[in-house]
Amino acid sequence: MKLKCLITLRVEFTLIMFRPFVGEIIVAKLKESTANGLRLSLEFFDDIYVPVHLLPVPSHSVPDPGKRDRVMWIWKFPDSDEELVIDGIDQIKFQVHSVNFPPIPIEQPEDSKPFAPMVVTGSIDFDGLGPVSWWVDAEDKDEEPEDP
Fold first, then answer.
1. Are 126 and 95 in contact (CB under 8 A)?
2. How far is CA 51 from CA 9, 12, 79, 120, 121, in A?
3. What digits encode the pLDDT tens for the residues 81-108?
4. Four-way CATH pick for 24-102+116-134: 3.30.450.40, 3.30.930.10, 3.40.50.1820, 2.40.50.140
5. What pLDDT is attached to residue 25?
6. What is the sign of the dihedral through the CA atoms of 127, 93, 26 and 45?
7. Spatial distance between the Cα atoms of 108 and 85, rounded to a whole number of angstroms
8. DSSP letter (8 states) at residue 65
């Protein structure tokens, strides 16, 4: 004879939802830099991608001497010989370009990566976006010294 036991528990919890909107500006850390673009992280969410066509124009990549299969992206500042590097040291300000919700898989292999509920595509091809130090340094250069 089988006995079924049903238990009802009252549970209280707090839910925090991350759902960025298109056009929102967010600051993240660089997780990886490849020939396809950048992958950014908010520590609690790592599926943020900045593809090559949404990097500042003109940008080019050079092999990263310290990391195999990785590159460093360099933006050549317009009307100048100055080149600005996108590296993992700085926080990166990006604008949400799109938010995609992939289909939920019915079954996943045990050793697979956890399912990402959404993929965020970002852009840094606009004034004020990209590594935060680019713009802080630019503000410092624009300030004129005060007269004594």
1. yes
2. 46, 41, 24, 11, 8
3. 888 888 877 899 999 999 998 777 777 7
4. 2.40.50.140
5. 97
6. positive
7. 38
8. T
Using DSSP bridges, classify how beta strands 130-131 and 37-41 pair: parallel, antiparallel or unpaired: unpaired
Instruction: Report the C-alpha dihedral over residues 72, 73, 78, 80, rounded to 10 degrees.
Output: 0
Own/partner contacts of 80-84, CB < 8 Å, gap of 24 or more, are: 84/130, 84/131, 84/134
CB contact at 8 A, 124 and 50: yes
Tokens of 19: 């759902």
The mean of the pLDDT values for the chain is 84
> Where do the H-state alpha helices sit in the chain?
132-142
pLDDT given for residue 36 in this prediction: 93
